[in-house]
Amino acid sequence: MRIGTAPVNWNNADVDIRPWMEYRQMLDEMVAAGYEHTEWGPGFPDDEVAVGVELRKRNLAMIGMFVPLGFRDADKYDEEMAKAMAIAHRLHHNGGTLIIAAEAGDERRRAEAGHVVEANGLTDQQWRNLAKGLEDLADNIAPMGMKVVLHNHVGTYVETQNETIRLLEETDPAKVGWCFDVGHMAYGGGDNLEMLERYGDRVAHVHIKDVDGAVLAQARADGWSFADALRHYIFATLGEGIARVPDMVQALVNRGYSGYFVVEQDTQPTAPGEVAKANREILADMLATAGAV
Q1: Quick one: fold of 2-290?
Q2: What is the pTM of this model?
């Protein structure tokens, strides 16, 4: 069982909440917090050689990268595929194996995060376009030993439980795995344990975060956007929210899940390095209690 981190804990592209940290300092803080694995993310330069040098200096291993993709619109296919392939090559150069693919969303969906109207979602053709794009990307990166995993994400058209199910059903399980984001599923109103029971065989990667129930209730009551919710620290310390994180960890261990748990708390009122360390220690205790090996 491997615990990883992600740059979103330090630099968040979805909200302007603090000055961005230079990536080498961020890598130093990851190591100080006890991590040996990271995803690529906000603040990293596009220079895969330079990044590789800095990773090796710190004995940090690369996992993959979160990539929003607009395959829902057929006329963006070539542009989005080219973007994804460029990222894949940067990751491959540094040992990364996962494209963590989210639907791209738009301003309306980001404004409706946590309180979407599913009837205003994708058309049948857009669902097919999105599925085809992800499957084609999986075919294109397979020769590099890389995989595509679908990331359910608030503020996109694959936010709710039903929307996540729709895309899982639209895609070939042999090509597209699932990055189960526990916090985003709870934020979008889904039932984590039910989804794991139904689609646990698709889980190939896990983003583990918790959700502050009081903040979520206020976000829904006041119609907050995703950025508004992030400013109010909607993601809580692991085990202190409504995402049933300890139960999810136990259920994943019981199922024999052996991939990464990537710890994320996108925004926090205190120093991100300290929060990242605390969450890693909490998760390690949960995994030990669950009997992980």
Answers
A1: TIM Barrel (3.20.20)
A2: 0.96
